[in-house]
Structure formats: structure tokens, C-alpha cells
């Protein structure tokens, strides 16, 4: 791809480090506004234990064109897809560690558009990740659709012995030159093409081949002159499910009963999928209303009345357990925890120091053959404890060393420090 007319280049590669992941959007928009990255069809390499590909469920689609209104609607799990609908991002490569399995491996093609019946943003993908949040609609129900390609790529930890075996990056590059996969077509279908789904344990003999395959997938997408965003959540290297510390195992099991997602058949037709989404929408709306009612009144009489509704049998036991530990439970937080108990648990894997080092080596091997990114965004995710707070500074320091080794001098902006009144940027 040729450099777009009028495109500007940074004197040093900027790295914006934020606390909550959706805060990177303002820096991406600023780079678009300054013409450092193009207005349309930007590609993103996204390293994270979470896909972050949900959509603000009730947000009007036109909100994406009002920057300040959009920023106020975004959250850590739903900041990418509004940029897709706005036309800015067309392809995301989600690189995930082995413990994060929310979306099937391989290439997914879908359309992201405006649902004509609700005026909200929806997708044509039938993956459980989108179905469980009631985000699927048939293609004919969307307007202003944008073709979107998602590559889901697993990255396993590298053997620490690879450090002394020549240059692992060059080895990966040499093994990553099979015929590139065809690019995304302009269709707005909801076709997913998963890989074979193999899920070997970390540090197996095939780990190097797997990284070479990851590099090949990325090089089939990124041309040498492509402007792209490299986005890293530090919880890629070590990840907690913070709700595991807020709720007991029994309470989480009860939330799973209440919020569990009934998957459609593998070969479900469009009518069945639409019925699944309608049923799921009602379930989530009922649960939201129930916990809103509990905020107002959680007396025994009210709880029993609410538990009489279909699917609410576990509610009495849950409220009783919550109140045994806290006289005034945070029911809004309980609902948020429940929303994560759909078809799978949130990833939870606190890595050892050795495993973090192995993942750093793996990431370095995967990124080394790629073109230099135009912009790097980093999320700490430590205040909400998705990245363990006692590990985040060490992980961040190691990530910056890897990036500097790969890409040279960096212009590092520590935005998370600005919020606490500290110096906001430094250069290295």
C-alpha cells in the first residue's frame, strides 16, 4: 500500500500508556485528526487477554460521529467496534495467550452496521461471543454496513532456552513465508473460518511453529508500508478475573445459573439465531431490571417475588449469601459480575515471573518481522485488577524494553500518571 497523500510521520514512535483500555481511543482519534494514520481502513494488532469487541448495547449508532458523546459511552470491553462502524478500523488481529479462549481461532469475516429496528450497532457474526451479548442480526437488517475482518491468533510462551539459540525472531521470520491468505473481501456476510482448534499446552515442541504461523498470518495482512496500530493490554502477560475475589465460588455458580447463555445448535438457521438473540435480550433485560429493583428494596418479600419469575430460582440463595457477608450488597456490581458468566468464565491466570519472561520472548518473536507500527497504545488495566497490581510496573517496564529493542527510540507518554498529578510523558 502506498503512503496516503498528506500523511505525516512522527519523528519518534509514540507510545501512549493509559490505565483503562478505552482511554486509548482519544489518542487514536488524535492521530487520525493529525493525519498520522488514515481516516479509513486502519489495521490494529491487539494483544490482550480479552477481545474487547463488544458494543455499547443501547448506544445509538450515530453517536460514533460525536466524539465527546462517544467517549462518554465507551468502556473497557467495547471500545473497538464503534471505531469499526465509523469506518476507521477495518481489520483487527487479536493475539491472545493460551488461557484466553473467548472467540474461535482463525479468520472471521463479518459486517458491522446499524440495526434498522433499534438504530444501534450490531454485527453479522454468529460466534458465541457476539450471540451471548445479543449483538447478532441478519445482514439484510443492517444499514451503513462496514466489512470487518478479525484474525484470532494464539501466542504461546517461548522456551527461555530460545534466547541463546541464535535469533528466534529471524527463525520465526524464515518459517513464516507460506502463501499469504487472501485479503478480506467486501462482502458483509457473517462467515467465520476457524482453524483446527488445536490447543496444546504451553511450552510444547510445537510452540515455535505456532509463533511462525502467527507471524505468517500477520504478514498476510500487513503490507510493508501499511500504517497500523499496535495495541497492548498488559493483562496479556498476567491476568486476573477480579470477580473471583469479590464473590465466593458458590455465588459465582449461582450467577452462572441466572446468566447462563443457551447456545444455538451448530447448524442453526437464521430464524433460530434471531430467536436465540430475542430470548437472550429478554433474559438480560429481566436480570438488569431485577438487580435494579434489589437496589431499591431487597427485603425477603421482594426477593421471593422476583425469584418467582422464570429462570430466577437461584436469586433467593444468592441474595441470602451476599447479605450474609455484607448488609448492603452492591447489586449493580453483582449484575456486572453476572454479565461475565455467560458461555465461559473471564480469563484468570496469574503468571509466574518465568512465564511472563517467556511470553515477552514470544511477543518479541512475533512482532520482530512486522513493519514498524505508526502508533502504539498500552493499557495497564491494574486499578480494576485485570492485570495484577503487584506485577503491572514490572510488566510495563519489560514491554517498553522489548518495544525499544524492536523499534528504536520511543516517545513514551504515561497518561495514567497525569491523572495523579505526576509527569505525563518522557522520552527514551
From TrEMBL:
Residues 158-210 are annotated as: Disordered. InterPro entries: UPF0489. Residues 195-204 have a biased composition (Polar residues). Belongs to the UPF0489 family. This is UPF0489 protein C5orf22 homolog. It comes from Ictalurus punctatus (Channel catfish). The gene is c20h5orf22.
